[in-house]
């Protein structure tokens, strides 16, 4: 009986509450609207964060990775072209502009900072890849663009010590390449002494740069490659006439087949002197009354 009575009371209370619901909703309409809107906003926020993390950020990472792969591929082409005497370094500048545009549109600051650092790195590398001599004006303009990119990366990566240190180290490299070694040394010392950068790769790089920096302060000038000498094939000296031990030494010298004809010829004697060949073509008979002291000397 009691349980049935309690059930009847609850039913009556529920019916009474439902009957008063329109009136209660009318009296608390503003509160209800605020609560509903707040719930919807919370649902949209969490739904958007999940979409951003699983879709948009993943898409950005893929796009950034593809850009880095493209830079590596172009660097390979540049190095290959150098071995053939062809300069493809300009392709690095053209492609690196994609990194700059990506940094401007990136949703996350850390991703934008990474793109700016890589963009500045490419600007510096391109100067080293050029086959032709880089003018001082081009060097300064391009290094200044790299410095601007590194500075922007530092502003975007203030909460990320790894990226912040990497961008600051890039500024030091720029100062070195401009010949401002004291400014570069100061930047490296700031990195090496900053405890916030402990455990990062950059602090190791900065300390190593400080220890070896003096080796790079002097300008390195490469000597031009020696020109290959054209080797002319020479023919061996040829002995045309047999050596006659009884003739003067100058007549028995070897004859150079490559010399002009008049050099190789032996000077003729006067026409009234009868010459006998160096080589005896006939043998002497016992009846010959003329005696020869030397078979190769003319008869007097």
Characteristic terms for this protein:
300 residues, mainly alpha, 9 helices, disordered C terminus, elongated, single chain
Helices and strands in order:
Layout: H1 2-27, H2 29-83, H3 90-105, H4 109-129, H5 136-156, H6 161-177, H7 181-193, H8 201-212, H9 261-264
Helix pairs in contact: 2-3, 2-4, 3-4, 4-5, 4-6, 5-6, 6-7, 6-8, 7-8
Summarize the structure.
The protein is mainly alpha-helical. The protein has helices at 2-27, 29-83, 90-105, 109-129, 136-156, 161-177, 181-193, 201-212, 261-264.
Q: Could you explain the architecture of this structure?
A:
Helices cover 62% and strands 0% of the residues. Residues 235-240, 245-255 and 261-300 have low confidence and may be disordered. The N and C termini lie far apart (178 Å). The longest helix has 55 residues, at 29-83. It has a domain at 160-221. With 300 residues, it is mainly alpha-helical. Helix 5 (136-156) packs antiparallel against helix 6 (161-177) and helix 6 runs antiparallel to helix 7 (181-193). It has helices at residues 2-27, 29-83, 90-105, 109-129, 136-156, 161-177, 181-193, 201-212, 261-264.
Q: What count of helical segments does DSSP give? A: 9
Average pLDDT confidence is 74
How far the N terminus sits from the C terminus, by CA atoms, comes to: 178 Å
Report strand %: under 5%
How would you describe the shape?
A: elongated
Instruction: Write the element-wise H/E pattern from the N-terminal end onward.
Output: HHHHHHHHH
What about the largest sheet?
A: none
Report the strand count: 0
């Amino acid at each position: 009986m009691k349980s049935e009575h309690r059930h009847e009371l609850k039913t009556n209370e529920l019916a009474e509450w439902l009957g008063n619901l329109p009136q209660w909703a009318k009296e608390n309409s503003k509160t209800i609207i605020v609560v509903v809107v707040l719930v919807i906003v919370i649902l949209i926020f969490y739904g958007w964060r999940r979409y951003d993390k699983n879709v948009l950020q993943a898409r950005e990472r893929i796009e950034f990775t593809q850009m880095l792969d493209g830079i590596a591929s172009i660097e390979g082409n540049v190095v290959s072209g150098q071995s053939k005497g062809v300069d493809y370094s300009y392709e690095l500048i053209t492609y690196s502009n994609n990194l700059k545009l990506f940094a401007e549109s990136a949703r996350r600051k850390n991703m934008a900072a990474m793109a700016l650092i890589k963009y500045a790195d490419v600007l510096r590398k391109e100067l080293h890849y050029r086959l032709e001599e880089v003018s001082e004006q081009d060097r300064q303009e391009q290094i200044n663009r790299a410095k601007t990119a590194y500075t922007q990366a530092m502003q975007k990566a203030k909460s990320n010590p790894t990226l912040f240190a990497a961008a600051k180290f890039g500024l030091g490299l720029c100062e070195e390449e401009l010949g401002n070694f004291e400014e570069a040394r100061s930047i490296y010392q700031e990195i090496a002494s900053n405890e916030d950068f402990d455990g990062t790769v950059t602090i190791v790089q900065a300390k190593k740069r400080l220890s070896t920096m003096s080796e790079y302060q002097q300008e390195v000038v490469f000597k031009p490659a020696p020109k290959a000498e054209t080797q002319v094939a020479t023919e061996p000296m040829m002995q045309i006439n047999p050596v006659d031990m009884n003739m003067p030494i100058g007549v028995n010298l070897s004859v150079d087949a490559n010399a002009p004809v008049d050099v190789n010829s032996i000077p003729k004697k006067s026409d009234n002197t009868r010459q006998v060949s160096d080589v005896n073509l006939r043998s002497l008979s016992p009846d010959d009354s003329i005696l020869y002291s030397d078979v190769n000397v003319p008869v007097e």
